[in-house]
Amino acid sequence: MAELYQTQRAMRNIRRAALQRGVIGILDIGTSKIACLVLRFDGTGTFRETDGVGPMAGQANFRVIGAASTRSRGMRRGEIEVMAETERAIRTVVAAAQKIAGVRVDHVIACLSGGRPASYGLAGDITLEAGRVHDHDVARVLAACDAPDFGRGREVLHAQPVNFAVDNRSSLGDPRDHVGNRLSCDMHVLTVDGDVIGNLIQCIRRCDLELAGIASAAYASARASLVEDEQELGAACIDLGGGGTGVSIFVKKHMIFADAVRIGGHLITQDIAQGLRVPLPVAERLKTLSGGVEATGRDDREMLDLGGAEASGWDGERRSVSRADLIGIMRPRVEEILENARQVLDAAGFDQMPSQQIVLTGGGSQIPGLDGLAARILGPTIRCGRPLRIDGLAHQFTDPGFASAVGLALFAAHPQDEWWDFEMPADSYPTRSLRRAYRWFRNNW
Amino acid sequence: MPDVIDHRPNRPSLPERIKRDPAPTRLQYRLERMWLRPIWRQAVRVGVPSFLIALTAGLWLADEDRRATLTGGVRQVMDKVQSREEFLVRTMTVEGASPVVDKALRAMLPVELPASSFDIDLTALRLQVMQLDVIESIDLRIKPGGILSAVVKEREPAILWRHARGIDILDRSGHRVASVTARDVRADLPLIAGDGADLAVTEALALIDAAGPILPRVRGLVRRGERRWDLELDHGQRIMLPADGAVIALQAAMALERSQDMLGRDIVAVDLRNPSRPVLRLGIEARNTLRQARGQPLLGPDGRIIQDEEKTEG
Predict the structure, then answer these.
(1) Among partner residues B2, B26, B33, which is closest to A104 by beta-carbon distance?
(2) Can you name the CATH fold of A265-332?
(3) Which residues, at least 6 apart from B30, have a Cβ–Cβ distance to it below 8 Å?
(4) Please, what CATH class does the domain formed by B159-283 belong to?
(5) For chain A, which residues make up each domain, given as ranges?
(6) Closest residue to A95, CB basis, from B21, B24, B37
(7) Number of neighbours of residue B35 by Cβ within 10 angstroms
(8) Quick check: A316 pLDDT over 80?
(9) ipTM of the complex as predicted
(10) Which of A90, A137, B20, B216 is 20 to 30 A from B11 via CA?
């Protein structure tokens, strides 16, 4: 894990440098769309009366100066499939956002929605020699967490200390200077496929951008959609995306679990295209404009035009279906997605949580009547969440589909502690690097 | 795809195919990002135009004929503007100057009138005129109506100074006004002589004022050792004045003269160099009279004692 520690540290340093320069880009690479926000950190924190709502929930030290989004290409299930296509899409969106912002973006923070995330809860335990917790003890206890075998080619994306305990006093946010004999910690580690991250990094590098941070999309959208109380008391965020559905559970303002269901909105479109025998763009339009999950009697009479000759293609006839038919196609798939999310939550033990709040976000959460259906499947306390308001974001970027972009912006502004933020204890440096340093000295002097 | 493909030559043109998912090429993207760098923007917006302007100007001016044409054109325009009626100076008026100075001033004007006011450099002309000793100050200006007006203030002659190279007229501050060939030319002015006398003209004038009653007898003042004055009277008499407080010493001598007719007696010199101890030097006649009364041998005109042997011989 030492190598990962170094790369993550390097990314954090890049991020710090970018914040110093004041401009950082946010790149949300999703399966259905790619969004880019350009943030300027000026630290003014000015509150305008016209905003109406209070001082932006403490998010006023940056503002969005450029935003653009485009249809995603070459992506499948949150992973890069055709790198050249994805690169073109990133170039498009970055160029558009730069043009609006009028500044050049060099550092971007990206998020990753695919890559089969897997979460682990690790526990570490050390004896305090000094009888008091010092800074290096925190690093020591984090290093003492016994990591299980993550599997071949897995990379750690997040490693966040969730909880500290000194002797029998648990749930400490900051254990420093506490008096005690034993320090133990719980750490949440999220791993993803290393190749997926490698592809993403490569793709961003090919666009002449430097990666200043990487986060899980489920984590980012939960940061944006869950209000502070929900994060504190415990809630699950379900991000209904195009290629996959991200699930993350927060409690005490820390993510304790994240997973992804590998079916999403694209499958619904595919079903509509197959069921109604229309091209995919038409199916997408039907889903977006007239989709739903709860059929009423009125929907039987509401006929939807499937388009003329150019739309329906070879047979040249004008066809129309009732909205009830469309709903009849969509509903089973939505149910399946929600069932899968339910299974993920059950596997995580969400029903043991003190608070059963579930927040639906992502582009899929805009299906009318989804909250009723989700309440039946997932549980009673459910709401459709929109991302937090951030300064300067245009209205068209405030819908739930941009939750992970907004969450990345918050992640850039207020990163949570990760394992690599603490100095690594000197004794756990691998001897290999010492030997390498020795060799370097010998070769150069 | 339409069912029947229209091949007629005058078929209506199909709507242009909408290009989906447009993306900038990599070159375009890089150029755009380069353009967003302030230094590039500056270089292209300022550097390239200025370079082009400089280049074309340089190439155009590289030819000798073009340069000549350009300078000729510029000069022509300048001449045209400068020789306009409004800038023409026709006459010169000189106020407060004697005829000689007036003539000299007119001769000093570098151009022939009428001339353009651009050709007359008033500052240089003023500096040149100020080199004339006789002129204390001059106010040169071009008045509306094409008049070059010179208001001159001449130095007033106050004293004559005789020195090794001739006789100069000085004003009250000791500045030279003019030269004269002989003392008689300005008999009305007092005369001073000696090295460094021109530096103490003020004191000399004060002394001459103080010498009021004996002024007809005064021949002049002589500066001794560049520190003190001798007042020379006719009949070879002189009053030696101290370096400091010369005027007071002279007033004391004048008081003596008034009360006792000192200078009417046979006195060669009044030595007032030490003010507390004035010394009189008697003339040869007076001394011989005294000597005769005392029965001493008389003195000759050279101041030596006439020997009795000569008398007996004579």
Answers:
(1) B33
(2) Nucleotidyltransferase; domain 5 (3.30.420)
(3) A208
(4) alpha beta
(5) 1-115+196-227+388-445, 118-194, 265-332
(6) B24
(7) 13
(8) no
(9) 0.73
(10) B20
